[in-house]
């Protein structure tokens, strides 16, 4: 912005343009005083698929999720498995949770078969949370169908 010089009492005003990118700071200097202006992140996120179809009892080898932020270069995000135990895991770009990304990118998860010895006849649910700058969150709910009832034990 252009700077102007004057002396004596007066009013100083400023305007901050909106942003769809990460948070940012600016400074305004009036005489010997410096005021820091902080703008919160304007990043928003689209996650696809955000409502995947139910996973069969046999599991799924991989599902690729694309994260597209409003600023496809600068907005940072992270994906973490918040429920689903050992049967729901990341496989790319790494197997650890959380996965951190920046800009438009992908991650891949896997759903293990719902088989013995941990088999359950009831469906099970896991969740992956994608969050970005600030408190923006998208949750992906993964539902897996239950297995068949176990064979009766005959004595």
The percentage of residues in β strands lies in 35-45%
Judged by helices, strands and strand pairing, the structural class is mainly beta
Mean pLDDT figure: 84
* Low-pLDDT stretches: none
The number of helices is 0
The ordered string of helix (H) and strand (E) elements is EEEEEEEEEE
Q: TL;DR of this structure?
A:
The chain has 155 residues and is an all-beta fold. It is 0% helix and 45% strand.
Structural features, described:
This protein has 155 residues and is mainly beta. Helices cover 0% and strands 45% of the residues. The termini are far apart.
Offer a few descriptive terms:
0% helix; mainly beta; 10 strands; 155 residues; four-stranded antiparallel sheet
Please render the helix and strand layout as text.
Blueprint: E1 24-30, E2 33-39, E3 45-48, E4 60-69, E5 76-83, E6 88-92, E7 99-102, E8 105-111, E9 124-132, E10 137-144
Antiparallel strand pairs: 1-2, 3-4, 4-8, 5-7, 5-9, 6-8, 9-10
């Amino acid at each position: 912005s252009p700077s102007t010089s004057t002396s004596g009492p007066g009013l100083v005003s400023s305007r901050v343009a909106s942003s769809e990118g990460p948070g940012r700071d600016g400074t305004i200097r009036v005489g010997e005083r410096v005021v820091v202006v902080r703008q919160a992140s304007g990043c928003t996120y689209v996650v696809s698929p955000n409502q995947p179809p139910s996973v069969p009892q046999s599991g799924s080898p991989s599902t690729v999720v694309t994260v597209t932020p409003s600023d496809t270069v600068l907005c940072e995000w992270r994906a973490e498995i918040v429920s689903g135990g050992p049967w729901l895991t990341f496989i790319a770009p790494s197997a650890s949770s959380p996965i951190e990304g920046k800009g438009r990118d992908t991650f891949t998860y896997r759903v293990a078969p719902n088989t013995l010895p941990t088999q359950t006849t009831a469906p099970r649910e896991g969740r992956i949370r994608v969050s970005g700058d600030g408190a923006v969150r998208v949750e992906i709910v993964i539902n897996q169908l239950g297995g068949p009832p176990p064979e009766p034990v005959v004595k």
